[in-house]
Amino acid sequence: MSSDVLLKDKVDHVAVLTLNRPAKLNALDGELRGAMLEAVRGVRSDDEVRAVIVTGAGRGFCSGADLTGGGGGEPKPPTQNDHLDDLGWVGRQALALYGLDKPVIGAVNGVAAGAGMSLALACDVRVGSEKARFKTVFIERNLSPDSGMSFFLPRIVGYSRAADLIYTSRPVEAEEAHRIGLLDRLVDHDELQERAIEFASQMADWPPLALRVSKRVLQHNVECDLDTALRYELTSLSYGNRAVNDRRESLAAFREKRKPTYTGT
Q1: Where are the strands (E) in 163-235, listed by range?
Q2: 3-class DSSP state for residue 137?
Q3: Phi, psi torsion values for 108, nearest 5 degrees
Q4: How far apart are the first and last CA of the chain?
């Protein structure tokens, strides 16, 4: 498998994954999907990586599944055993990013449509430029949402706004995207990469284990009642406290009024 379709870089403790099929607006074909899953596995096992940025090369973030070369194709007819079927690449993509135990920042540099919009939504947060543009697309292809969109979108913008975007498939330009929460930060296009790395570095400066546990607690407690959430927080605290050196460093840096240096141990 060629690595050219996905560029991988590292800036200090931040991994940058760049979808690199600019002529196709970074549409997801089989090669790019496989490279993306492999890269996510790689950053998961790399303790030097504490935060991840996903972005696109050229004019687009990701235009969705590549329907021109076997990247998407016709939907499978349902079978009696659909509930036993594998989740498919769309499910694996959503689970890979959402389940990554490190913060993921989507740097949305252009169009994010269909499964490409879902890819952006699976990130923990999104930074975009004035050239960012979102479109759900599925209804235009005689499809209901997949790739996690029906899960992520209402949690980010609320049910009725998600219904608006899915039922109409209307484009959402950058300023509206920022206003309704599809983008968490809106920055100048020429500064997008720099600002995304700056954002990721703010996260990566903190104790790595506490950062991972914070993501797990936040995701778990989105759906919980308060009592369950409080109990899960208490349970998770003991896991985060296993990083004894970082706990000591945190206290020492506070007392000495200096910037702490965390190791994850």
Answers
A1: 172-173, 185-187
A2: coil
A3: -90, 105
A4: 35
Nearest partner of 18 among 62, 65, 48, judged by Cα: 62
Q: Pick from 204, 207, 203: which is nearest to 244 by CA?
A: 207
Cβ-defined contacts of 86-89 (< 8 Å, 24+)? 89/28, 89/33
Q: What would the pLDDT profile of 85-98 be if each residue is shown by its tens digit? A: 577 888 899 999 99
Please report which helix (H) or strand (E) contains residue 186, including its range. strand 185-187
Helices (H) and strands (E) in the chain, counts: 10, 10
pLDDT band at 10 (very low <50, low <70, confident <90, very high): very high
Name the amino acid, one letter, at 62: C
Which residues face 133 on adjacent strands?
A: 111, 173
Distance (Å, rounded) from C-alpha 188 to C-alpha 216?
Answer: 31
Beta strands 172-173 and 133-135, pairing class: antiparallel
pLDDT tens, 167-195? 999 999 999 999 999 999 999 999 999 99
> Model pTM?
0.88
Strand 6-11 versus strand 14-19 pairing type: antiparallel
Q: Please give the structure tokens belonging to residue 186.
A: 């809106």
Structure tokens at 216: 């797990």
Mean pLDDT to the nearest integer, 123-144: 96
What number of CA atoms fall less than 13 Å from residue 73's CA on the CB side?
11
Structure tokens at 2: 């060629």
Q: Which of 10, 177, 139, 41 is nearest to 187 (CA)?
A: 177
Note the Cα 202 to chain centre separation in Å. 17
Mean pLDDT of the chain: 89
* Of the candidates 219, 8, 218, 192, the residue with the CA atom closest to the CA atom of residue 106: 192
* Distance, CA of 153 to CA of 161 (rounded, Å): 9
